[in-house]
Amino acid sequence: GVNKPELLPRSYTPVIDVAGFLSEGQEGRIAQEIKEIEELTGFKLRVLAQNYPNTPGLAIREFWKVDDNTIVFVADPSLGNILNFNVGASVDLNVPRSFWSRLAGQYGNVFYWREKGEDASIEAAVAAISSCLREPPGPRACSTIN
């Protein structure tokens, strides 16, 4: 795999945008939402916006201290569907697997992000993840994409 730590920012941030999809304001809003999610749920959401092969790749694992409570959300249009998720084992126990494919289908399809923009896909996905993680656990948890 690709491993380019030189593409990582100098200081910690839960949002890394090496592709330039997000404005500074959007990055700030997403980072604030991520902070609230982590404080309320204990789950860590990390967002990497890239356009392969321009990616830090494996270097993000150590930078973000990825563990079982981490959701790594990679936004990369070169993969076709812009929304891709790597979900830790603890998250997998709390969020139905079907949620991730439904989320990608709604906001990550090529028609959505070409019409609305990569930034809109990323922001909509973060909002939907936030909504899902705040729901009480149960058989209907995360059954709708908000």
TrEMBL record:
It holds the Pfam family TPM_phosphatase. Gene3D superfamilies: 3.10.310.50. Residues 15-129 form the TPM domain. This is TPM domain-containing protein. It comes from Selaginella moellendorffii (Spikemoss).
